[in-house]
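Reviewer 2 asked us to include a model.

Predict the structure of this chain.
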Amino acid sequence: MTEAIKISVQRLDHGRGLGLPAHATPASSGVDLAAAIDRPVTLEPGRHALIATGLAIAVPNGFEAQVRPRSGLALKHGVTVLNSPGTIDADYRGEIKVILINLGEEPFIIERGMRIAQLVIGRINPIAWQEVETLPDSDRGDGGFGSSGLAGNTVREEA
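Predicted model (structure tokens):
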């Protein structure tokens, strides 16, 4: 088993009474973030809102935290994280807040303690740009934005 990354967490006053984010299963990649709100928030179709979690964290240098949608909210209600994934840098010490958007057709009510997003911790590497006149060739070249088609399970034939 991989060693756990130690993350300092501060529970803010409006987050008291809510559990700390936890892995739902031993193999879960992320932990669920809960809404730390005083009263329900109705998210009308096409609207977005900033939802507090009542938590602040200190991500270790060399890591980032990503706020991601919960698949059940997306599938069942059309509710997702607007800036997905939202990035929390190692030097940010403010409250984690989640920008939710309702892409569904019905109003969605967010209540205190509702699991609204996932938080995933990932390792990052600093970038050292190396400016060049031309890039090395590749099989793909500059093909993008759907250039590989929609059909699945295809194998490219060697020319």
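Residues 32 and 118 are 4 Å apart (CA to CA). The mean pLDDT is 93. We have added this to the supplementary material.
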